Amino acid sequence: METTSHAVLAEGLTKRYGTKCALDDFDLTVAPGTVQGLLGPNGAGKTTAVRILSTLLRPDGGRALVAGHDVAVDPRRVRRHIGLVGQNAALDEAVTGRRNLNLFGRLFHLDKRRAARRADELLERFDLVEAADRGVKHYSGGMRRRLDLAASMILAPTVLFLDEPTTGLDPRARNEVWQAVRSLLAGGTAVLLTTQYLDEADKLADRIAVLDRGRKIADDTPERLKRELGGDRIEVVVREAAHLQPALRVLALVTESGGEPLVDAEERRVTAPVGDRVAALTHVARTCQEEGIAIEDIGVRRPTLDEVFLRLTGHRAHEGDPDPSTPTRPDSSGAGDPGDAIDPSAPSGKEVARR
């Protein structure tokens, strides 16, 4: 394996749970100072991949290097170079934000003065100075997430794993987290981001790997993935589900050669690539009216990642079954199966970063 230019390098990673293959021959490379998105529905294998790369699960096959160290051969050394932020914030809500960061600093073997200095630096970096001496229980969702990110950066990790960090947050809080993630890249930190949110992957990721049922089915930049769907797309949203198929037949008449319409039944939406946007829009609007197809909305726009995912997998990004590597207990940072941990002392939460 060539390691010099990669923060993360994985080849042929495989993980099985009984007869279910949670991760199947998975390859990945992540360059320093970039965001690599892992996109897929529940059960696609995103969390399994992150747990293997962060030393919380042992792979059944394949090999992975993180910061130049083998996750199976030398997990303790890997942990000195990584940070991990799961879906649930690993914070003590009974104390202040500053106290939380000081505690993490001491946990990571910083002396009292260095821990306090690092806490001050991170509070400023993540725009938490004004809330530093306020109890975390009074923080908003976005503030807690930013504090969680700050705690994961105590020792400036080479690689930061973000496993669906904005799940359950409102749009404003999600934007706060996105801004915090962008601030990490200037220092050369590589970020591996798993998400079900298409807009999140589009805004943050330099590259996106699409997973479905344990297999990687695409890996490219967001723009190139969207470009594969062609140029302009006409979009029709019908008022009733019964009108989806008639609308599909109408759009098929204006679909650009080599393209195909896509149907999103949940959103009652049909889209198709077109060449002459004005002619296509006029024809579709007139034909739908003539055939009694009730339209809620119609327009022409550029392709979205949602459509890329729909074409690649046949279903929407948030559909699917739970990832078998995800624990059922409330603390989502622990190992899914005791037998899968790389060693009995494998830590949970942020302790994985520096043991």
From TrEMBL:
GO terms (BP aspect): daunorubicin transport; doxorubicin transport; response to antibiotic
Family classification: Belongs to the ABC transporter superfamily. Drug exporter-1 (DrugE1) (TC 3.A.1.105) family.
Name the record gives this protein: ABC-type xenobiotic transporter
Subcellular location: Cell membrane
PROSITE patterns membership: ABC_TRANSPORTER_1 (PS00211), ABC_TRANSPORTER_2 (PS50893)
Classification via PANTHER family: ABC TRANSPORTER ATP-BINDING PROTEIN (PTHR42711), DOXORUBICIN RESISTANCE ATP-BINDING PROTEIN DRRA (PTHR42711:SF19)
Membrane topology: Peripheral membrane protein
Keywords: Antibiotic resistance, ATP-binding, Cell membrane, Membrane, Nucleotide-binding, Translocase, Transport
Gene Ontology terms: cellular component: plasma membrane
Enzyme Commission designation: 7.6.2.2
Keyword Nucleotide-binding in annotation: yes
Region (Disordered): 314-355
Predominant cellular place of this UniProt entry's protein: membrane
Lineage summary: Bacteria, Bacillati, Actinomycetota, Actinomycetes, Kitasatosporales
Example of a GO MF term: ATP hydrolysis activity
EC main group: translocase
